[in-house]
Every structure is written in C-alpha cells, then in structure tokens.
Amino acid sequence: MQNGPAVRRRKLGAELRTLRTGAGLTSGEAARLVGWHQSKVSRIETGSSGVKPADLRLLLDAYAVRDAQLRELLLMLAGSENDGDRDRWWHAYRGVLPPTYRDFISLESQASAMRTLETTVVPGLLQTADYARAVTRAAVKDLDEERLDALVEVRLARQDVLRSNPPLELCAVLDEAVLRREVGGPEVMARQLERLMEAALLPQVRLQVLPFGAGAHVGLTGPFVIFSFPSTSDLDVVVLDQLTSSLYLERKEDLRAYSEAFQALQEHALSPHDSLAYIAGIGDGA
Q1: Cβ-based neighbours of 186, under 8 Å, separated by 6 or more
Q2: Coil, helix or strand for 80?
Q3: Are 245 and 100 in contact, with CB atoms under 8 Å apart?
Q4: Nearest to 20 by CA among 34, 30, 12, 28
Q5: pLDDT at 6
Q6: Residues with Cβ < 8 Å from 114, sequence gap 6 or more?
Q7: Nearest 10 degrees: CA dihedral of 53, 54, 56, 60?
Q8: Which of 66, 103, 116, 269 has the maximal Cβ count within 10 Å?
Q9: Which of 105, 206, 101 is nearest to 161 (CA)?
C-alpha cells in the first residue's frame, strides 16, 4: 500500500522502464541520449524520485513514443499542467483540501473509467449540493461556512468528469443502506434520489443497487474505488478510503482481486433497469 503520489511515481517509472526496454535501450544509453547521469534514469524508473514534464518529454522522444494519448496520460501522471477539459482546477483549493483528497481528485480527473462500491453514502460524482453539504458537515468537525462552501464547490466541480469529452465511465454499485439513510432530511434525500435516477439514464453511468434482500456479499468488508486509465491497464489502481487518509493498492494481484469482487457484486445486484425502479420505489416511500 502506498500514498497516492508514490503510486503514481512507481507506475510512471514502471511504464517508462517498459518503454525504454521496448526501444532496445539500457538505462545508461537512455541517459546519454538525453544528457543525464544513468542514476537519474534509474531513480525515475524505481519511483524513488519524480520527473518534471519537460524531462519526461525528453525521455518519450528518446524512446520514440508517438502515441498522443499515452504521452498525455504519462505527462499528467508526472504532474503536467493540462489546458484541456480535465485541467488541474483543484489547485485553486490547495488551502482547503488535504493532500490525500487532492490526489484522489487528480486520479479521478485522469481516469477513463471508475468502478465504485458504496455502502454508506452516495458517490461524490452523483451527489446534489444539499446532500454534499450535509455529508461534509457530518464528516468534518468544526467547519466554518466559508470552508464548507468551498468543499461543496469542489464536490460539484469534480462532477465535470462525467460531462467532459470523452466522459469518465462510471459503474457504481450502491448498498440499499445508501438509499435509506436520510442525509440532510426528507427533502434533501428526495432530491438526491431523483438525481440518482437522472444519472442512471446517462450512457456513461451504470448504476446498480444491492438490496437488503440480497443478503451477505463480498462488499460487506467496505467501500472501494477502482480507477482505470486509457492506453494501459498497468496504471490501474484501487483506492480504499479511510477516515483520515486513503490507501492505494497497485499490485496486479490486488487489482485482480478487487476487479473480481466488483464483478461478483454486479452479478449479485439488481440490473440497472430494476435498480432504477427500486430507487423510484424508495423515493415513493416503499
């Protein structure tokens, strides 16, 4: 398990090592091509140090990487500024957001797909403003109104990934407790359920409900998120959210285990069509 930045450095380094060997170069030969010492290439490939976007471009040119999408993804992992739909807008909130949250948003903005199991609250990408306000107020103690407003703004701004081009593909499995827990009061919850039904109709969203009647399931161990990235599955990562931090799992066996667990949850849950009707029934007081 690693924190977010370490995961990105290691994944970026592993990908660069693969690209270098694919180009038929030793680390020493690669270093000479870009005018560096061999130890710098080694530190980057092991993830012990980061790489500036300008230096990364030198390496990608040396390795003859022409795939624009792959180059963009690797540059984003390196921390480059991006002027497209998924730029680093959250930097404006550096004084408000803890580092682990900023890093989660960074991964979310770069991902092409997100699979999430939620057992307690509605996923942030599908929350209404009032629901987000109620959740944030309950989760973070001693918030003044200005900081609370900023955190809600961030929650809503994150949702732009569902409207970008191309949009993030979101697959969410929600335990029925998420739908039954009255966050913010009856009116807030009623609007939140309506929002879920609206989102469920979007082509980039697949929403499924795990009803109480489904009994025990693998998701009882807790919520998780799996981020997938374009061009290569080697950059995929599992995120386990904790009260004060987040844990990132990057090993292939961990990714395989959580991917299989998510598939089992989808098979255990109601179909998207039946889930929509189930949410509507709860909204009607069933």
Answers
A1: none
A2: coil
A3: yes
A4: 30
A5: 67
A6: 108, 125, 168, 169, 170, 171, 225, 226, 227, 228
A7: 130
A8: 269
A9: 105
Pick from 229, 235, 282, 213: nearest CA to 108? 229
| 79: confidence class by pLDDT, cuts 50, 70, 90 | low
Complete edge-to-edge strand list for the sheet that includes strand 224-228: 205-210, 169-175, 113-118, 224-228, 237-241, 246-249
Distance CA 248, CA 7 (A): 7
User: What confidence category does residue 170 fall into, taking pLDDT thresholds of 50, 70 and 90?
Assistant: very high
Q: What is d(CA 108, CA 87) in angstroms, rounded to the nearest whole number?
A: 11
Looking at residue 268, what is its pLDDT?
94
Cβ partners under 8 Å of residue 231, min gap 6: 67, 69, 70, 73
pLDDT at 103 over 90: no
Tell me the pairing of strands 113-118 and 224-228.
Answer: antiparallel
33 touches 25 (CB < 8 A): yes
User: Is residue 223 within 8 Å of 120, Cβ to Cβ?
Assistant: yes
